[in-house]
Design brief:
The complex is a heterodimer. By secondary structure, chain A is mainly β. Helices cover 0% and strands 55% of the residues of chain A. Chain A contains no helices and 11 strands. In chain A, strand 7 and strand 8 form a beta hairpin. Chain B is mostly beta strands. In chain B, 0% of the residues lie in helices and 53% in strands. Chain B contains no helices and 11 strands. In chain B, the strands form 2 sheets. In chain B, strands 2, 4, 5, 6, 9, 10 and 11 form a 7-stranded mixed β-sheet that branches. A 4-stranded antiparallel β-sheet of chain B has the order 1-3-8-7, with no helix packed on it. The radius of gyration of chain B is 14 Å and the shape is globular. Chain B starts with a strand and ends with a strand. In chain B, 36% of the residues are buried. About 4% of the residues of chain B have low confidence. The chains are: A mainly beta, B mainly beta. The interface between A and B is medium-sized, with 24 and 27 residues.
Chain lengths: 113, 118
């Protein structure tokens, strides 16, 4: 069974304190790993897609990396507005966005001023 | 583009009442999904459609839940009768086919319908 876990469950940082969030996956064949940001009272908002080990994507203070077993979301010099829940999801079968698109439980990030 | 549009945003209803949630996917998207999110279970896929046809409803919790997609621009999720344990945020999402590596296709979510059953 395909599984996605995320750690830590919650993370509290001071403004400017860089850190990383982890997404570990056990899947039969990765066809894409996705990072989303979810603000309270909102739907998940797409951030990145990664397809192969060694791939990296960057957006402002965020950088996502991918290995064969996990992905990291690095946050450099975070600001309070980066506070949100960060979700990762994996797709394991081409042309299938249903049960083979599995979300992790998320990491709740709080950045204190 | 207006994005995925859901209604109502918030609903409070009494146990036993019928609840209907509505969704308009992004124009041109041929996949539509209904997810449920709770603190305990996170995001759970309930059902998804491809070209208006239900493909997999194995995530629908029980017969009280039903979903329809009468056309490419509208879908409903109905709960009848509702129970307090159905209280959750229900998300509709959509995406387009085209899954060659690097296509970047991802699932786009609506703002959710917050359901409280008392």
């Amino acid at each position: 069974e395909d599984q996605v876990t995320q750690s830590p469950e919650a993370l509290r940082l001071q403004e400017g304190e860089s850190s990383s969030l982890n997404c570990s996956y056990t899947v039969s064949g990765l066809r894409g790993l996705f990072w989303y940001r979810q603000d309270p009272g909102k739907g998940p908002e797409f951030l990145f897609t990664l397809y192969s080990a060694g791939e990296e994507k960057e957006k402002e203070r965020l950088k996502a990396t991918l290995t064969k077993k996990e992905s990291f979301l690095h946050i450099t010099a975070p600001k309070p507005e980066d506070s949100a829940t960060y979700l990762c999801a994996v797709r394991t079968v081409p042309d299938n966005y249903g049960q083979n698109f599995v979300f992790g439980p998320g990491t709740r990030l709080s950045v204190l001023p | 583009d207006a994005g995925v549009i859901q209604s109502p945003r918030h609903e409070v209803t009494e146990m036993g009442q019928e609840v209907t949630l509505r969704c308009k996917p992004i124009s041109g998207h041929d996949y539509l999904f209904w997810y449920r999110q709770t603190m305990m279970r996170g995001l759970e896929l309930l059902i998804y459609f491809n070209n208006n046809v239900p493909i997999d409803d194995s995530g629908m919790p029980e017969d009280r839940f039903s979903a329809k997609m009468p056309n490419a621009s509208f879908s409903t999720l109905k709960i009848q009768p509702s129970e307090p344990r159905d209280s959750a945020v229900y998300f509709c999402a959509s995406t387009a086919a085209g899954v060659t590596p690097g296509s970047g296709n991802t699932i786009y979510f609506g703002e959710g319908s917050w359901l409280t059953v008392v």
